[in-house]
Amino acid sequence: MIEKMNKYANELRLHIIDMLTEAGSGHPGGSLSAADILTYLYYKEMNINPNNKDDPNRDRFILSKGHAAPVLYGVLAMKGFFDIEDLKSLRKVGSFLQGHPDMKKVQGVEMSTGSLGQGFSASVGIAIGNKIDSKKSRVYTLLGDGELQEGIVWEAAMAASHYKLDNLVAIIDNNGLQIDGANDEVMKVSPLKEKWESFGWNTIEIDGHSFEEIKKAFTQARNKKEKPTAIIAKTVKGKGVTFMENQIGWHGVAPSNEERLKAFNELKGFIEKEGE
């Protein structure tokens, strides 16, 4: 299972690089860092079915850090929500794949996001609604660590704890970098574990690129009662493409055709190695 997850995650990274190069704009760094997490969510963790997209009992995923739309679009296409060829239309005039996810235009997108913190708040509202309706479906939301500088995040975190939303999981893509530099230089967000715990959350720290650790964290979250779970996933910005890794300059710059080829050769090497 782990070998397949690694293969799927690197195929997702190939799609991210390809669509961003075709678009000539977008956000590679934070999309690549989240590829392993979204791969596990969509291939293993969540109850979703592209052939029954409107199932009222489906699990929901909300990309709160909406600028990382390429990672969401990529995994949705891979799971069959729309044609993979459509990925090359990202950010082009007339395309349904905008720079940020639009729930009215993209099959599989549960909430339009982009303004940081609002996707997380919507996730809390959806989880409350599911509780009221006695639904067993779960809500998963991915936040950037720089996003935690938004006050709305902590208001929502407080509400989730108050309402004992054990059907809600927040994953923090903790790659340490945001558009203006390192988190600790722009506005310190650590210590994350202690902060989430102080807001009444069950809090787990993991390596966000280890499928074994990702699996254990989601299993623990499912078994936790009367508390929402925050998974603090330590990740590498630009993961999988060596020249992008831990480089703040790749937060919101698309690769050139030459850089796409270089990234493709590296990622295809990983995929071929996993297939041996």
UniProtKB/TrEMBL annotation:
GO terms for molecular function: metal ion binding; transferase activity. Its cofactor is thiamine diphosphate. Residues 6-270 form the Transketolase N-terminal domain. The keyword Transferase applies. The keyword Metal-binding applies. InterPro entries: THDP-binding, Transketolase_CS, Transketolase_N. Keywords: Metal-binding, Thiamine pyrophosphate, Transferase. PROSITE patterns: TRANSKETOLASE_1 (PS00801). Pfam families: Transketolase_N. Belongs to the transketolase family. This is Transketolase. It comes from Maledivibacter halophilus.
